[in-house]
Amino acid sequence: MSRKLVVLHIDGVSADFLAKALAAGEMPFVQHLIDAEGYELHRYRCGVPSTTPFAQAGILYGDNIEIPSFRWWDRERSVVVQFGAGSTFKSVADKYFQGRDPLTRDGACIAACYPAGAADDFGIAYQDRSYGRQAKSRSAASVLVPYLANPIHLGDWVVQTVAVLARTAKDYAIARSEGRHPARGYVAVDVVEEIFVHHLTRYAVQKAMREGYSPIYGAFYAFDETAHAFGPSDRSAMHVLKHVDRTIRKVASVRGEAYELLVLSDHGQVETTRFAGARGRAFGEVLAELLPGFRIQEIKGADYGPPEDQATGRVRVTMSGGLAHVYFDGPRARMGHTELTAQHPDLARAVSGLRQVALVMSRDGGEDVFHVRGEEIRGPRIKPLLAAYDDPDILFAQLSRLNSFQSCGDLIVFGAFVDGKQVNFEDQAGGHGSIGGDQLHPFVLAKKEWEIDTSSVRGAHELHPILSRLRDRLAT
């Protein structure tokens, strides 16, 4: 008998963090799936950068080439490409995914960064992310109105609103009293995510199941936002994971005989310390000192250096967690290492010499060039230093693949681990996007009988054929 497939994407949860939550008894329904329904937990590597747009493109299309971070500068079209609120990916979307077989073709893709060939992409809270207006896609109102018209849903929403506001206020106060500094911007986003977006996304997934769509892909971001706000090891992150467990249970409750359920994540999270906090100055300010006369623009940050009309040049810096791309204004193509060194001979060396920087990467023709602690290292000779972060052969291949993208900055900068926390270029208590630790190791929760093997998956794009085969196998 043919079966339909629903995939739940739980943003930001690493395989190890999920295993710890299960061992602590914090996710009883997921434990039930393992004990009673024959599910097992698989680790895989998402690749570098460990960001949602990169990993999700790989999962949904099998192609994440030229997606170098959460946000980047498109030289050809002179636009900052970013996701989330105010997404601009639609301005460059025609350049991506041509000829690919999307995972959710003719199905439903809910709250994702991309429509992925879906007949219905349920443009609700993440409608600004959806550049593909499919004929059957619904507006926010068409999902929200029937949801709130149900007294049970409305009552649950009111109760959850009160509970989330009270818990978040308490967690924030405790964190401050313990001398920690939650990321206030993400605290507000976290509240909205839990109260509003999460519930509507769950309802949209259930609605798609009742209407027979397949495959269905639904993305839930509450844990990731909470971990950004408070850090992944904070008590509030575990509270949200319990909320996620209830959501998985509620979605599973409408499976009936028609649907099979698979749960996965796109990347993990690590505890972070802010670059400005660790260094005393923002990254853009440091670059302005190293590049006198240049106007430095941190995307989603401040500007540094002389006024625009007095500057001799301009540099844009896009920051995605522990990863930063540095773009010199003017060239329509990425600047090679030789040209960059000729114009700014000490820049890569100086940036890599900062205690808060793990390594700096550029490209010299087809060769990878790394700078670590002021020393230039070419190609595979970097591997012994990469062993501190992950398997050096795998990580080198991941870095080299990223470094081949023309959409990357002229310099790519990775934050170092300082006192057990990764230096983050954004204002976050927990983050990802860089190298090292849980951020590189997400999970897939699948039935043993499907015989899924993720042991050789080195990037999220390699997960796509595995899921596509499962989709097709279930449908026959």
How is this structure best described in words?
- With 476 residues, the chain is α+β, with helices and mostly antiparallel strands.
- The chain folds into 2 domains: 4-63 and 100-269 and 436-475, Alkaline Phosphatase, subunit A, CATH 3.40.720; 273-426, no CATH class.
- The protein is 36% helix and 20% strand.
- It is built from 15 helices and 20 strands.
- The protein has an 8-stranded mixed beta sheet with strand order 10-9-11-12-16-13-14-15. Strands 2-20-7-1-6-5 form a 6-stranded mixed beta sheet, sandwiched between helices.
- A hairpin with a 4-residue loop joins strand 3 and strand 4 (79-82).
- Helix 5 (151-177) runs antiparallel to helix 6 and helix 6 (184-210) packs parallel to helix 8.
- The longest helix has 27 residues, at 151-177.
- The protein is globular, with a radius of gyration of 22 Å.
- The model is unreliable at 124-134 (pLDDT under 50).
Q: Which topology of the largest domain does CATH recognise?
A: Alkaline Phosphatase, subunit A
Rg estimate, integer Å:
22 Å
Q: What's the CATH first level of the largest domain?
A: Alpha Beta
The profile of the biggest β sheet is: 8 strands, mixed
| Beta fraction | 15-25%
Number of domains: 2
Euclidean distance between termini CA atoms: 7 Å
**CATH architecture classification name of the largest domain:** 3-Layer(aba) Sandwich
Strand order of the largest sheet: 10-9-11-12-16-13-14-15
Helix content: 25-40%
Instruction: Assign the structural class, choosing from mainly alpha, mainly beta, alpha/beta, alpha+beta, or little secondary structure.
Output: alpha+beta
- Quote the average pLDDT: 88
